[in-house]
Amino acid sequence: MRNLFTIIAVVGLLVTVGCKDKPTKKPQKPVKTAVVQKPVVKDTVKKVVEKPKVKPAPPKPADKYFLIAGSFASMDNANVFKTKLIADGYNAQVIERPGGPNGEFYKVAYKGFYDRKEAYAELRTARNSEDHSDVWLLVKK
């Protein structure tokens, strides 16, 4: 029984020693700090963004091949026929070729081409239609 009393006394002592009042920490007051705000300054330098330069399309070369709908000895008759073709919706023009074979005639073209293959393909198509069966191709040099 003595041992039991000793054990209880030791445990009680430990409990009381362990439960000592600890000094409580006083709550700290928040420290106020001054926040300095710098004024916002807008950029005075204007940023220039360069757009990529687009190269213009190279100029279309002048037409070299022409589908001729009529050939006239008189410039007046060629202009009358050209006006009729324009009224029909074609981009007609009068071509003069001084010198050479048939140089004294004014040719009325209703279509012009730079590409040879395209010109001959259109000539075949035109000759197969009834309206332009007498069309021929003029090649300018």
* Outline: rod-shaped
As a whole number of angstroms, the C-alpha radius of gyration is 52 Å
Question: Segments where pLDDT lies below 50 for 5+ residues?
Answer: none
Helix fraction bin:
25-40%
Oligomer: single chain
How would you portray this structure in words?
This protein is of the alpha+beta class and 141 residues long. It contains three helices and four strands, in the order αβαββαβ. The chain has a four-stranded antiparallel β-sheet with strand order 2-3-1-4, with helices on one face. The mean pLDDT is 82.
Detail the topology: elements first, then pairings.
Blueprint: H1 2-18, E1 65-72, H2 75-87, E2 93-96, E3 106-113, H3 116-128, E4 136-139
Antiparallel strand pairs: 1-3, 1-4, 2-3
What keywords describe this structure?
alpha+beta; 141 residues
Offer a quick outline of the entry.
With 141 residues, the protein is α+β, with helices and mostly antiparallel strands.
